[in-house]
Amino acid sequence: MSDGTEPIADDELLYRRVPEAWFDRKTDARPSPLAFKPREGDVTGISVSRGKYKTPEQAAVNQSGKSYYVAVLRAGDLRTCGMDVVARPQEGDPGHAEIPELTFASRQTPTAKGFQLLLAERLCREVLGPFPEAS
Amino acid sequence: MRDTGGALLSDEPTPVVRTGALDEDGMALPDERARASRGAWQHAIDDYLIEWGRHPEQLADEALDLVAPTPIAIRIASDLAMRARDNAWPPPLRVVPDGEGGIAFELRAGAVFQSLEVSGDGVLELLTFRDSKLVSRDPLPRVG
Fold this sequence. Notes:
Number of strands of chain A: 6
Largest interface: A-B, 25 and 24 residues
Shape of chain B: globular
Structural class of chain B: alpha+beta
Strand content of chain A: 15-25%
Strand content of chain B: 15-25%
Distance between the termini of chain A: 37 Å
Shape of chain A: globular
Radius of gyration of chain A: 14 Å
Strand order of the largest sheet of chain B: 1-2-3-4-5
Oligomer: heterodimer
Number of helices of chain A: 3
Helix content of chain B: 25-40%
Mean pLDDT of chain B: 83
Number of domains of chain A: 1
Largest sheet of chain B: 5 strands, antiparallel
Helix content of chain A: 10-25%
Mean pLDDT of chain A: 95
Radius of gyration of chain B: 15 Å
Order of helices and strands of chain B: HHHHEEEEE
Largest sheet of chain A: 6 strands, antiparallel
Structural class of chain A: alpha+beta
Order of helices and strands of chain A: EEHEHEEHE
Number of domains of chain B: 1
């Protein structure tokens, strides 16, 4: 049984939770690069969910009750552009993974800024949601 | 110090990040586009900045470590947007919180992407990217 430690194949899809403020389908098909900006807790990399373990709807689930969009990426696309994605399973979340090039400490470097833009503008395959849908 | 409007991208067929101290009249778009641009900036003011000023808590997200824009960021961003509207600067693609108390106006034309950023403590900066590579990062004077 998989426990989330197996390497992420190039063709595996990844899901990134995107708050509603950073995406508007009426404005643009792509999210803001800020959707990929490291936050204070991103010490070893920004979080994504592995498509092998979660559906997009599951990737959007959170404790706050807010709705989120889900940006879809493909692992191999990131690697082609100089980033990596590594499996970092957590208690109760075997599908947790991280992009190690994007940490809070390095978020303002030119490289990190460029990666954030690349993820939003070129590597994001589509944006799904919002989940849960507004009733 | 370089004029802010003079540094924003244009929507010419070959997008150019303008440099140099162009006067704001020189940056104004032709009439019809100027009207559309003013409308876009007014939309940013009415539907985002004013709303965020009234209800900043809607942008905070403890689960994701996101901090709502600060009052000073909202004020400076609003002043900047009003100046942009009045001078018909190229319209923003979007206006977004940065998650750390600040606000960003994002613009795109072809291979050029720019982010006009107001930090949580009111510092202004213009980041310019070409083909997703950061090519310049310039501090800007406050408006108002």
